[in-house]
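User: For a benchmark we're assembling, each entry needs the component sequences followed by a predicted structure for the full assembly. Here are entry 17's components. Please fill in the structure.
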Amino acid sequence: MFRSNKWRQSSFAALQRVSRRLQSRIAELEKENSELKERAVGSCTDPLTGLFDRRVLHDVLQQTLETAQNYQGMVAVLLLDLDRFKLINETLGHKTGDRLLVAVARRLIECIGQQDTLCRLGGDEFLVILPNTQNIDDASALARMIVDELAQPYCMDGFELFVTASVGISVFPSDGEDAEVLLKNAESAMYRAKDHGKNNFQLYNETINANLIWRLAMENRLRRAVENEEFFLVYQPQVDVKTAQIVGMEALVRWHNGEDSIVSPADFIPLAEETGLIVPLGEWVLRTACQQNKAWQQAGFPSLRISVNLSARQFQEADLLVTIRSVLQDTGLAASSLTIELTESIIMANPAQTIAILNELKAMGVQVSIDDFGTGYSSLAYLKRFPIDTLKIDKSFVNGVTEDAGDAAIVTAVAQMAHSLTLKVVAEGVELAEQLAFIQSCCCDVYQGYYYSKPLTTKSFTELLEKNFPIGT
Ligand code: C2E
Ligand code: MG
Ligand code: MG
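Assistant: Structure for entry 17:
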């Protein structure tokens, strides 16, 4: 009896121990489970906006398509990309960029219905899945609402910021029967919205494919054109406002694309930038322009300054300075006869790197001009810090000086500001005598435009020089 009691007591104690251990293991497992769950949900949401991320998208879309297939319904996919967001990020900083993305996400949530799914695909790309689309007009109406809503100003730190979006729409089953094709087609439509001036939406259709094929063909032709040197330069005179003498010229590239067709840079520079072909092309432009300027100087014309446009892609090249130095050395052109034209967005993209490069250029004796001034985002404080020599006021302002009081005020203010910072001012796009009179009245230093001359071939520019600077006089 005694033994049996003892045995019972020790069995009971052992059972209690096992039970305690089991309970604590159960608690551990529950904790692990809830952590795993949290991680599973957390790993599928974007930490910045709290929206679903790319990983959820595929499953949700696939499931939505299967359901729609069963009841023969329609599903619309809206792919949205912010316009020029990169520029905002680079110029106003990533923190502002992030806050803007959160604000955009909030507006998108307000726009969509309860059954719709909203994902952030990454960067400034969002996707909306509309599971119960009755007809294409539903999707278009939502896209219109999204475009309009996002275009309203965002208030950040007391100032207004503007960003727009381009949206591409594809619809199941007409534009694709699986997730991959639908996404690809929505993306093509979104690019078409960008091509159509941004801040709009486009529906996918077959012609987009035709456009993509055209783009690929163009890229191939451009690639071959770089190899075959099908490019040539034209030169537009830059004229001193006071003396009416030619003081320099801007080199502008043209593409002789077989037979008689000349392609303008606006049609191929963006593609050349995207594909990286701008790097060899840009070096060719720089070399040819410097060679030609040296040739004019050797022919006995006064030393004029040649301006060469540099694209963002070239500015990011690690060996840009080496290239410029070797071009000057090879062609024998003095650095003081070369000006590099950069746009505001290029110089604002990476201010620290820009200052270092501009300082090197200054040390070499090459001048730097800011092209299309007034059309980009730039901080006026940088104008003071960057070693810049010239501001080129964009032709869109110069064009309006005689009719638009706002344009006139901008040109006057930019000229005054530039002069206070001891920068020179070039007015671009002067087409009329009245515009020139205005430019003179607000003391711009140099002008360029059709009023004096359109860009000229080497032969015509040489003739112009001969007329203006008769050799031997
Ligand atoms: P940009 O550097 O601002 O060049 C001035 C543009 O304005 C030229 O157009 C010129 O022909 C045009 N223009 C000049 N005066 C007038 C005028 O009075 N009225 C009007 N309406 N237009 C005028 P273009 O040659 O078509 O070049 C367009 C842009 O392409 C250039 O703008 C520049 O950003 C880019 N570009 C041209 N050549 C090169 C190049 O070699 N490299 C790079 N990266 N970009 C280039
Ligand atoms: Mg230019
Ligand atoms: Mg310009």
